[in-house]
Amino acid sequence: MNLLIAVIPILPLAGFAITAVIGRRLGKQAHLIPVGLIVLTWVISMIVAFSSLTGGGPFEVTLYDWIPAGAFNVEAGFYVDNLTAALLIVVTTIGMLVHVYSIGYMGHDPGYWRFFAYLNLFMFSMLLLVLANSWLVVFVAWELVGLCSYLLIGFWYTRRSAALAAKKAFIVNRVGDVGFALGIMAIFANTLSLGEPTLNIRESIEMLTNAATAGEPLVIPIQIVALLVFAGAMGKSAQFPLHVWLPDAMEGPTPVSALIHAATMVNAGVYLVARANNLFAAAPSAMVVVAAIGIFTAILAASIAMTQTDIKRVLAYSTLSQLGYMFAALGVGAFTAAIFHLMTHGFFKGLLFLDSGSVIHAVHDEQDMRRMGGLSRKIPITYATMLIGAVAISGIPPLAGFFSKDEILGEAFKLGFPWVWAIGIVVAVMTAFYMFRLIGLTFWGESRVDPAVEPRIHESPPVMTWPLILLAIPSVALGLVLGLPLGNGILQSWLAPVFEEGVHALETARNIQPEAYSILGVDGALIVASVAAAAIGLVVAWRFFGVEIGARLRRAPDPEAVRSVSARAPFLYRASLNKWWFDDLYDLLFIRIGGWIAAAAWWFDREVVDGTVNAIGAVTRQTGRGLSHVQTGRVQNYALGIAIGLIVMAGSYLVIVGR
Amino acid sequence: MPRGLLTVIASMFVVGTAIGLPVLLFLLGLLKTPEDVLFFVFAEVLLVSALLVVTMRDIIRCGLAMIVCFGALAGIYVIAGAPLVAAAQVLVYIGAISVLILFAIMLTQTKAAPSSLVFQTQAVGAALAAILLAIIVVITVGATGWGAVDQRIHTATDELATLLFNDYVLPFEVVSVLLLAAVIGGVFLAKREEGGPS
Amino acid sequence: MSNSLDAYLILSALLFAIGTFGFLARRNAISMLMSIELMLNGVNLAIVAFGAFIPNLAQDGSVIALMVMAVAAAEATVGLSIVIAIYRNRKTPLVDEYDAMRR
Predict the structure, then answer these.
(1) Which of A90, A171, A514, B177 has its CB 3.0 to 4.6 Å from that of A346, i.e. a possible disulfide?
(2) Where is average pLDDT lowest: A69-73, B69-73, B159-163?
(3) What is the CA radius of gyration of chain B?
(4) Residue C103 placed within a domain
(5) Are A640 and C24 within 8 A, CB to CB?
(6) ipTM of the assembly?
């Protein structure tokens, strides 16, 4: 078992290494090794995950002592418990399907081999992150993931916008990483002051939470530690205010968007906070911050998604919004709900992204929805799977999204955060609205496709449609599988041992008793509320953008109504269209003002610092030049010097001894 | 007044002072014995001629002043009771070195020489240095107890000769070799280059 | 005065000082050499004076003075030859024009 666990990250790493070296020569066959290795990784991950979930775990594997430094030891090792198992399932399944999908999508790209090398590197980094048992290993994997996102977003590096987007992603990520690094240092400082320096995740968190509950003062208060760790999660999972990189990251190829921004990388932040749930539970004020930022990001992103015209941008903002939900769940203490949503979201968002890729492929690289329409008849498989994804994300039962979203909202309400619940309901309305707006613009109504392209619209090849179908299945079924029976689903029982300490700590801190799940009481009302919210969003979307489901549910789109509504709230419309001007704000603050500061600093460096150094040199040179006048070349001048020296010596001797 | 008259009056003044001063001092009691007077006169001549050596414009005249200086010095040697040294002084310095210097002056004279500056720009500093040097030595001399006797010791020549050829014969011989080397070196250095301008 | 050692020594010091001044201040190389001779003579005077007044040094003083005289003669010879050789090269006896070693 230990060997299997150790092998999981090594296989994709080997895939990357091999493909990087000999990939170019393999040409069209370059996908064989990486995809094959990923399939193998998936198999092994499933074995490991299920053996953990069926009670075999948790497993801990130590590969080697990475940094032995006396009393302090950092080991490179892996830890597998049920949380890790859940993440493994999501990451490897979606990763594998994206790899297969890429065979078709990137088939014509000259950088084919490079793409698969990067994909494999990315899988390695993510698996390392999920499996790691030490903060330092997590940090290394964290950075690697950031690097891979840079490489993959900027895959088409000759495109200026892609290169800029990749830089933006990396830099914004780094801002969060500073917080994370400080958090790790804070953890180390605290464990050091408590006597046993360690960076093992479980041990260090245990030490910190014990000290915090016992009331011992820590070098760095636990709230600060928690907030710093959350800062890292904010960067990676694109929470406000570090959310600006995710939409631009759509410059990368669609499989990249699916993998990184829907299914795996952005989940790293959620996983981090979930893994450190004890830490956060010991710092309730930090958790409130997490919840607030999460739900704010959710509504912010949803508001922007409602007016975007690029199909991938809508999905990107949707991801931001759903991530906000996950952090809101973590913040209120509904850890299992957050992970549940992570899993379901991974599948249906991955499905939606791959579907969008299929749509784009079909209309020959057109991404603007205003030039799509009526595609439902022409690309049926894509249409069907995308519709399933949209229904899932809107939270309509009995698809997966309903179960996980309802659990989040329900827990938020019951754990004493009614404002989170209220905002969450609004976001649910908006989610259903923009998703069906997307479906309406893309698949229904009259075709607005460029006439030159229209005859060539075709369904994607099987290598691309099979992953879509395979992803649609968990989008439908996962909720039923993991979420039933309501209130105590299978996932709940799996993850209970991971979260029980944190949940218990929160209950004692907030003095809330866990109530039994009552379908006819509060919980039932909450379910009705969330379904109603989804229904409202749905109906409004159908009103404006039309609907064509089956023979009887038909309505034409109404562009006039759309225009009049948006005309009645011009500020909101413009704000939404301009992403609430955050990019402009950051440009002003950091590029312009930062540019001035940099220019001033450069002036200082040039004139003062270099000036000082040059001045020293100049002084030396001038002194030398001045002194060189002594060298006249004439003997008599030198003789006078000798005479003076003699007089000085004899005279001073006379004077000193004479006294 | 015509120039010649000025020169005559100046020289009379100088000579008068030169003779008058010792007489005055004799009368004042500072110079007790005739040797004292003689010593004073010789000292006067020595210093004045030395000053002329270093300050006169025309080098030939400097050379001649130097001869006078050496002569006065020989006189002082006699008074100090070293007659052989005095004789050697006259023979070597006046008879050989001064002549050599005069020859060298004549060999290196340029037409531009008389009109150019006598002194360097550092003459002031040099004067200052010289004065300070003199002061230091004088103070030191005055402050030191030499263990001197009251009366001059006269060195007889035969005693000197005995010493020279018995105890100091090695330095004597070495000096002769040195003189030989100097002569050879001097001839070689000063000889005319083959085919070069003289 | 002729019986006091100090007088002779002061005289020697003055002669040496005058020689130093001439050596440092005159432009002609031969003048410098003449000044050197003055300095040497000043020293000689001091030696003879010591020989005259210090019993242990009675005859030694004169012997040393003779040696100094001989060495001075040798040095004058070589020095003058050098000056003549330089004069042939530089066409001038003025030492402030011998500044080829200037910076």
Answers:
(1) A90
(2) A69-73
(3) 22
(4) no
(5) yes
(6) 0.91
Compute the distance between CA of residue A341 and CA of residue B194 in angstroms, rounded to an integer: 111
Mutation test of the interface with chain C: which of B32, B131, B189, choosing the one with the most C Cβ atoms within 10 A? B189
Interface touch A631/C102, C-beta < 8 Å: yes
Residue C102 included in any domain: no
Instruction: List the single range of A141-145, A451-455, B75-79 with lowest mean pLDDT.
Output: A451-455
Q: Where are the domains of chain B?
A: 7-117, 154-198
- CA A104 to mean position of chain CA atoms: 26
Of the candidates A628, A634, A643, the beta carbon closest to that of C99 is on A634
Lowest mean pLDDT among A405-409, A499-503, B125-129: A499-503
Chain B hits for C99, Cβ within 8 Å: none
- CB-CB under 8 Å, A654 with B133: no
Q: Which class would CATH give B7-117? A: mainly alpha
pLDDT of residue B198: 46
C-alpha distances out from residue A401 to A342, A392, B91, Å: 10, 5, 131
> Which site among C4, C9, C15, C18 would you substitute to test the B interface, given the most B Cβ atoms closer than 10 Å to its Cβ?
C18
Within-domain flag for C10: yes
Which residues of chain C are within 8 Å of residue A621 when distances are taken between CB atoms? none
pLDDT tens column, C13-59: 999 999 999 999 988 889 999 999 999 999 999 999 999 998 888 88
In a domain, C46, yes or no: yes
Q: What is the pLDDT of residue B99?
A: 94
Q: Are A330 and A338 in contact (CB under 8 A)?
A: yes
pLDDT at A317: 92
Instruction: Report how many domains make up chain C.
Output: 1
Task: Report the gap between the CA of B15 and the closest CA in chain C (Å).
Answer: 21
The Cα–Cα gap between A232 and A265 comes to 13
Beta carbon pairs, B and C, within 8 Å:
258
If phi > 0 it is left, if psi is from -120 to 50 it is alpha, else beta; for residue B197 that is beta
Smallest CA–CA distance, residue B118 to chain A, in Å, is: 14
Q: Do A651 and B136 touch (CB under 8 A)?
A: yes
Cis status, amide bond into A397, omega within 30 of 0 = no
Distance from CA of B157 to the nearest CA of A (A): 37
Residue in chain A nearest C97 by alpha carbon = A634
Taking an 8 Å cut-off on Cβ atoms, the answer to whether C24 and A639 are in contact is yes
Which domain, by its residues, includes C13?
5-97
| Measured CA distances, A281 to A302, A330, A507, A510 (Å) | 28, 10, 9, 11
Percentage of chain A surpassing pLDDT 90?
25
- What tens digit of pLDDT does each residue of A586-624 get? 888 888 888 899 999 999 988 888 889 999 999 999 999
> pLDDT per residue over A567-577, tens digit each?
777 778 778 88
For A221, counting Cβ atoms within 10 Å of its Cβ (0-12 exposed, 13-18 middle, 19+ buried), the class is middle
Q: Which of A636, A637, A654 sits opposite B139 (nearest CB)?
A: A654
Is there a contact between B197 and C13 if contact means CB atoms under 8 Å apart?
A: no
- Residue C59 is predicted with a pLDDT of 85
**C92·B110 Cβ contact <8 A:** yes
Average pLDDT, chain C: 90
Ordered DSSP codes for A450-490:
-TTTGGG--PPPHHHHHHHHHHHHHHHHHHHHHHPSTTS-H
Burial B107-126 (b: 16+ CB within 10 A, else e): bbbeeebeeeebbbebbebb
H or E segment to which residue A548 belongs: strand A547-549
Sign of the alpha-carbon torsion through B185, B187, B190, B196: negative
CATH at C41? 1.10.287.3510
Q: What is the pLDDT of residues A522-553, one digit of tens each?
A: 777 888 888 888 888 888 888 887 777 766 67
pLDDT band at B151 (very low <50, low <70, confident <90, very high): confident
